[in-house]
Amino acid sequence: MNNIKLIEVPSEIGAGTRGASLGIDAIKIAGLDFMSNFFVHFPSERIESENNLLFEPIQSPYAKRIHGVLNMYERISKSICDCMKNNFFPVVLSGDHSNAGGTIAGIKMAKPKSKLGVIWIDAHADLHTPYTTPSGNMHGMPIATAIAEDNIECKVHEVDEKTVKIWNQLKTIGKINQKVLPEDVVFISLRDFEKEEKHLIEKHGIKVIPTSEVRRNGAENVSRKVLRYLSDCTDIYVSFDVDSLDSSISRGTGTPVGNGLREREAEDLISKFMQNRKVCCFEITEVNPTLDKENLMAEIAFNILQRSVNILMMN
Question: Which CATH architecture describes the domain 4-314?
């Protein structure tokens, strides 16, 4: 049986829209509304955030609040590393997706010899860098930090020295450069990305499984294909951004996009992944109840969380 620990990261400094830090409590409230005692069952740890930076002026326009993101990477990676070294399975609930860079670093710090695969269920590729970003929001960059990619070929911004220095620290956190090889990343339901990101997907041949393939072939076939593709990996991290869901249901997130997964498709897919022994960490991110009606997004996230953890408990 897996010993599960909930790691709560209420940080939203990487997002462009405010409110994602409230997502964790919204998911807990959804659990209460469903009369579930889920959150009483597991040990949990809440990581201190840097959300006070939201009230301060932006210093790095192409990597907003990057110094705060570096602090978060350090805190999260330490927490994840300690958790795994103590034989817990970390289930991470985080505000915005920039936090995932810290999660990935923590897994590698706990298992430096591992070949880590990443299943990124997200409408977005999150492959931007300070040199290419259209928004400056750090939640568009965690995969780039994990694969240690600057994408200088597509450079559109002159980035100041201080920002470059912190960006390089993000890529080498835990004294490990390139936590994940690009060929060990799989995007699922990716559908909203810029030409600079497309360049990297093509350059590295990163695997993309569109929504249409999930719908056509079903969760069972798609999960089998993904796990076969990552068969060389010793460990797998699954990151679920709720904006992978279709915008008809994913109103409660900062960047909703049409043509996404249905709730049941996401739930079935994630459940299939969770049955695999190589999966060592699961993260749910970007629930923003301030944008939602009747806490719907958090309820969907809670259902997926509960079913996933039940499967982990049975493994």
Answer: 3-Layer(aba) Sandwich (3.40)
